[in-house]
Write a structure and sequence with these properties.
Dbl Homology Domain, Chain A, alpha+beta, 7 strands, 2 domains, 304 residues, PH-domain like, single chain, 17% strand, DH_dom, 7-stranded antiparallel beta sheet, 8 helices
């Protein structure tokens, strides 16, 4: 007799979870533990660096090894009597929020591994030594570290498939649909954390290019657009190269610096977006021109 489709997916969930717990064991009990032991001798890297690289991997490992995997195993052994996994996944979903921290830290962790491998040959040697072991399957530490980042999307796909294959009258339908919704919310939470981190990083880079002026640096600002522009001087009918940064609350009118030490631009004028007006001009001599007028002053600009 052929296994029902939903059972096949539930078994796939169990098998991938088993493999995943092995990977987490490798990250937490092998890489993290051994690097930490070496760090304590003071010969490789500071302990703080090792902690920063592995973030909260220990909590993630313990949760999956001691709670989620055993629950799934029990459920699958009892499948013929009680064919359901929706309720177990509902218990899992809230804990997946702790992935937010790991995922947010991931790029930083990879940068730290690269930087300290160059700075500290013993650190690099220890990682290379662990990577040679059979358990690593010829894959790098960075590759193994990517696994938790990809795990939540994997749950989402498997559970979507599971819900699709469930017979309409299945006793697991209600629970499985609710579980899918919860996993979807967690995935969104994790993606939002990454997007917010990227926004702040990009914003910080822009602030550095502007010379970190106190009255401009504000983490809640949002950069909308930036680019070169020509300023038209009506006095002598000429143009000069300028640069604009448009934020949600202000327009920065800047001059590129000739000697770029530190900042790339000098802010000449800051205009509030509130009350600002933009009007296109019809000028045969200077095409694509427009006027920007704000409380502070009016500029005549030409786009490319």
């Amino acid at each position: 007799m052929q296994e029902p489709e939903e059972k096949k997916i539930a078994l796939e969930l169990l098998e991938t979870e088993q493999a995943y717990v092995n990977r987490l064991h490798l990250l937490d009990q092998v890489f993290y533990t051994e690097l930490m032991k070496e760090a304590k001798t003071g010969k490789t890297v500071p302990e703080e660096v090792v902690k920063m690289i592995f973030s909260n991997i220990s909590s993630i490992y313990q949760f999956h090894a001691e709670f989620f995997l055993p629950e799934l195993q029990k459920r699958m052994e009892d499948w013929n009597r009680n064919p359901r996994i929706g309720d177990v996944i509902q218990k899992l979903a809230p804990f997946l929020k702790m992935y937010g921290e790991y995922v947010k830290n991931f790029d930083k962790a990879v940068e730290l591994i690269t930087a300290w491998s160059e700075k500290s040959p013993p650190f690099q040697e220890l990682i290379a030594d662990i990577q040679k072991r059979k358990v690593c399957a010829n894959l790098t530490l960075q590759h193994h570290m990517l696994e938790p980042v990809q795990r939540i999307p994997r749950y989402e796909l498997l559970l979507k498939d599971y819900v699709r294959k469930l017979p309409p009258q299945s006793p697991d339908r209600g629970d499985a649909e609710k579980a899918l919704e919860m996993i979807f919310m967690v995935a969104k939470h994790s993606n939002a954390a990454i997007a917010e981190m990227e926004r702040l990083q990009n914003l910080w880079v822009v602030y550095q290019r502007l010379g970190l002026e106190d009255d401009i640096v504000d983490p809640s600002n949002e950069l909308i657009k930036e680019g070169p522009i020509q300023k038209i001087s009506t006095r002598n009918n000429s143009t000069s190269e300028k640069y604009l940064f448009l934020f949600n609350n202000m327009l920065l009118y800047c001059v590129p610096k000739v000697i770029q030490v530190g900042a790339e631009f000098q802010v000449h004028l800051r205009m509030d977006v509130g009350g600002m007006k933009v009007r296109e001009l019809k000028d045969a001599e200077f095409p694509h021109t427009f006027l920007v007028s704000g409380k502070q002053r009016t500029l005549e600009l030409q786009a490319r």
